[in-house]
Amino acid sequence: MQIHVIGGGLAGCEAAFAAANRGCAVILHEMKPHRYSPAHSMEDLCELVCSNSLKASRLDSAGGLLKAEMEKLGSVTLMAAKETSVPAGGALAVDREAFAKAVSARIYAHPNIRVQREEVTEIPSDGITVIATGPLTDGALAEQIRSLCGDTLSFFDAAAPIVLKDTIDMENAFYGARYGRGGDDYINCPMNREEYEAFYEALISAERAPQHGVDNVNVFEGCMPVEIMASRGRETLLYGPLRPVGLRDPKTDKRPHAVVQLRQDNQAGTLYNLVGFQTNLRFGEQKRVFSMIPALKNAEFVRYGVMHRNSFIRSPEVLCKDFSLRKNPSVFFAGQITGVEGYMESAASGILAGINAAKRLKGDAPIILPVETMMGALTHYIAESALGDFQPMNANFGILPPLSERIRDKHERYLAMAERSLALLSEKI
Fold this sequence. Notes:
Elements: E1 3-6, H1 10-21, E2 26-30, E3 53-56, H2 62-72, H3 76-83, E4 85-86, E5 91-94, H4 96-109, E6 113-117, E7 128-131, H5 139-149, E8 153-158, E9 162-164, E10 174-178, E11 181-191, H6 193-205, H7 226-230, E12 258-264, E13 271-274, H8 283-290, E14 301-303, E15 307-312, H9 315-318, E16 324-325, E17 328-333, H10 343-362, H11 374-384, H12 410-428
Parallel strand pairs: 1-2, 1-7, 2-6, 7-17
Antiparallel strand pairs: 3-5, 4-5, 8-15, 9-13, 9-14, 10-11, 11-12, 12-13, 16-17
Helix pairs in contact: 1-10, 2-10, 2-12, 3-4
């Protein structure tokens, strides 16, 4: 008997690695390079298609707590991320290509994992299967999933553009921290009021790429295209991705009216992405509008922003807390297709699905983490949230139970919740 893992993204690689580390024979099925989804272009496993940021590292943040829990459970993606990190202040960001290669190397080197490069069109009938095919699953396999799970829901996801560092006009930019945290790892592109007003008008009137069904309702909030965000009001961006908190322009010694921040995208430091600038504008319009940012007036775009459909199953109706199907316990799901949203959230679900797939194969009881842990709270949300309006969920402290004692300071409160989580996790594992 063996475990099949379908999909070589973050969730699939974590599931395969977790099950293999527990002594199970694993076949990891990956359809690249025979076929690529609309969002993928790299042959390696674990390709990051949107941001290169894995979010905050500090323990009093939801992302930091989630990563601390994952590390305790032997996360392969975190091992690779630490090896391939790039400067990003208080966040953990990676060189995309180096990260994918580092994860791939660990997967291929594991004695219990065999990688098969093939498109799976039918759920295997031998052993246990973990489906981690991601939100762009289509074709025959999607039809099989639909027959098992019923209708799926959809939302749209977007990626930000990337520019060559050497083409950024540093006379109109300066280094600084993001929101006053960490080192001066971000390139800040300031705009005065007049420049922002002109940019805003161009942005909201720019031509968008045709995408059926894209509107303010079915776009996931965490990946909201900048032009849709801007359409909510003239000041919206100033309280979002263009917020100039904690920054002073050294040329004027004043806080800028607006700031576009650029984050390093590769270890060589030659590529930078526009933070918070996910977009569905036509490529020519991206060049025209984003070049209105003074520091980017001559910028060379090596990748324009794109938008694609994401689908997920109605997990509360069909999944157990161990990520297995209620009506077919030999089939597990992991990753964004379950309704978790975010790189690390997807990877975390893969770890739990892989562990529980291994336990199912061996006849052992599943591991169900306490709801006071971030991974446990996400699992609870996926399996037991209200069915009426099930929507994707990121890691956040709002899904954790409150502390028994009242702590007014937010950072102290979050740190106490994180310490509680890690203590309970240590007892569980």
